Structure formats: structure tokens, C-alpha cells
Here is the input.
Amino acid sequence: MSSGDSSKVTPTISPSPESDPHAPFSRRMQWLTVLLGGVGAVVAAFLKSPRFGIGVAVGTLLAWLNFRWLDRGLGVLISAAVAQQGSPKPRVPLGVYVRFAGRYLLIGLAVYVSVVYFGVPLLAVLLGLLALGAAAITEGLYELISGNA
Here is the structure.
């Protein structure tokens, strides 16, 4: 590598939470995912079966992890884009690609292990994964009602 290549190395540090306007949204999405999925898991455990409730809880945990990983990956992409502003050929760190693909592999593996080895109903895990969608709808309604949109 020549010394000119070192200027193309991208930082992976995201903005501090105090200066990041996205941080409140991200925090709300995370706790809404856990809250709505947790309530769904408790309701499912009482109405269907404890194993079904565990499946919803597992799906909720996976949805929360998926959002965290996606949020961090996008933060790295944004940092790289800002650091390379004006560069003719911006570079994306290889780790970003690995993390984006890897999160789907890990979620798929976790679902497979939960269903096959622990006997958790697949439908329950899938319903738990929908907690992120429910959180996104709730957050969107909050943004509209509060005027923050």
C-alpha cells in the first residue's frame, strides 16, 4: 500500500448520542420492540401455551438484535460516507457487508435451533419477529401525533 491509500481508511466511530438526532428514535424503537414483544409473549403464554409464549419472546429478542445490528451498520455507513465526502471512489469497510449478511444468517440459525432443538413453535417465533414492525408503526404514529415527523 502506498501512503496515499491511508487517507481512504474509513472511521467506524459513530456520532456521540448527544449529537446524533437519530438516537432518540433508535432508543424508542428498541424499547418499543421489547415492550410490545414482551406483552405479546405474556399474552401468548396465557392464551396458547407457555412454549408458544417463549417462542414469541425468542422472536422478539431476535427482532431487537436485528434492529440493533442494522442501526449500527447504518451508523458505520454514514460515518464512512461523511469521512469520504468528495472522494471519487468511496470505500465501504468489508465488515459492513459481512455484518449485513451475517445478521440474517444468525437469525436464521437461531430460529432453526429454537424450532428444531427446543421445540418452540415456528409460528410463535415469526410472530415475535413482527414486534419490530409493531414498534415501527407505533413510532410512526408517535412521530405524527407529537409533530416530530
